[in-house]
Amino acid sequence: MGDQHRLTQLFTNLLENTLKYTDGPGSLNINMQGIDNEIIVSFADSAPGVDEETLDKIFDRFYRVELSRSREMGGAGLGLSICSEIVDAHSGSIKAKRSSIGGLEIVIIFNKAES
Questions:
Q1: Whole-angstrom distance, CA of residue 90 vs CA of residue 12
Q2: Tens of pLDDT along 34-80?
Q3: Backbone dihedral region of 33: left (phi > 0), alpha (psi from -120 to 50 degrees) or beta?
Q4: Is 15 exposed, middle or buried (0-12, 13-18, 19+ CB in 10 A)?
Q5: Homologous superfamily in CATH for domain 4-109
Q6: Nearest CA-CA partner of 58 in 14, 1, 25
Q7: What are 105's strand-pairing partners?
Q8: What are the residue boundaries of the structural domains of the chain, listed by start?
Q9: For residue 54, what pLDDT is reported?
Q10: pTM value?
């Protein structure tokens, strides 16, 4: 159960981030699995990545990584903050970590709706 419009916005923001900040020809692995009462969705892209000390800041409003993932056509630093708010509104959690393919991995965990 969820807000279709906001979930579409969440996944669109994550896809746009990959397009904007992944070196070409890049890769994106999207995975979804249900484990117990949770749905886990991950978006893992290829290089460049984000420094370990930056990972916990990327969901802050207006925060922009200025080094490895910055581009001339960068945004305002709101995309991942909006993603975090959407996930929070759905009683989920979101985190960032280094991806196994050299970039950034965003992991989202939602609770399954009771039927």
A1: 16
A2: 999 999 999 999 999 888 888 888 998 866 665 444 444 455 567 89
A3: beta
A4: middle
A5: Histidine kinase-like ATPase, C-terminal domain (3.30.565.10)
A6: 14
A7: 44, 97
A8: 4-109
A9: 86
A10: 0.86
